[in-house]
């Protein structure tokens, strides 16, 4: 393989990686919107239970041509489960995007040495073109959304235990809520693993990494 073929190979890999990264960003934004809608739906069920259930059943009938007559607790648990699923998808996509920008930066370094010019279209340019805007968006993804998510989850599940009948549905909802909180904490730890953390957070994160190995 001559130098041109090597360059073409690396550049093709760069273009494909960039394409996959953009597709992942689109999916991430879609999942973010779905999470917001599902979370809002859970709170609306608390405030306007009858109207919210009617809207949910109408949506299912319109989209799937299926007429369902689930009770309040079943629908609530279904939405909790969907929230867990899309939260997992959202975190996976966002972690993938973070990793891809580092990978793109490495490829740009290789290409720069080949053409003897600085190439930083995506990787290194990610947080440099619009630093204030990028820092704000970065803060939302890494701090704002996870913290708001945990707060809303705790408020909602606490509300269920205080104001609703204690049944298997609430136990299921509580388990789902716990999974979401754990996922969110692990997500934040992953994003900030290169930051200086407190001693106990470092210890927990280290044990988690050893378990994964």
TrEMBL record:
Q: Which UniProt keywords apply?
A: Membrane, Transmembrane, Transmembrane helix
- Record field: transmembrane: 31-49, 70-88, 139-158, 170-190
**Protein name listed in UniProt:** Uncharacterized protein
Species source reads: Clostridium acetireducens DSM 10703
């Amino acid at each position: 393989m001559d130098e041109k073929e090597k360059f073409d190979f690396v550049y093709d890999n760069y273009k494909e990686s960039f394409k996959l990264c953009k597709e992942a960003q689109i999916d991430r934004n879609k999942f973010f919107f779905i999470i917001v809608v599902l979370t809002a739906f859970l709170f609306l069920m608390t405030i306007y239970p009858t109207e919210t259930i009617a809207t949910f059943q109408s949506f299912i009938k319109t989209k799937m041509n299926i007429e369902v007559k689930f009770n309040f607790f079943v629908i609530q648990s279904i939405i909790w489960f969907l929230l867990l699923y899309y939260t997992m998808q959202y975190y996976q996509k966002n972690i993938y995007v973070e990793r891809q920008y580092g990978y793109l930066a490495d490829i740009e370094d290789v290409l720069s040495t080949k053409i003897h010019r600085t190439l930083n279209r995506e990787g290194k340019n990610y947080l440099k073109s619009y630093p204030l805007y990028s820092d704000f968006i970065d803060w939302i993804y890494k701090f704002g959304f996870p913290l708001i998510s945990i707060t809303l989850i705790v408020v909602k599940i606490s509300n269920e235990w205080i104001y609703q009948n204690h049944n298997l549905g609430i136990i299921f909802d509580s388990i789902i809520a716990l999974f979401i909180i754990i996922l969110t904490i692990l997500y934040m730890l992953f994003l900030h693993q290169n930051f200086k953390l407190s001693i106990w957070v470092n210890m927990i994160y280290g044990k988690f990494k050893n378990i994964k190995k």
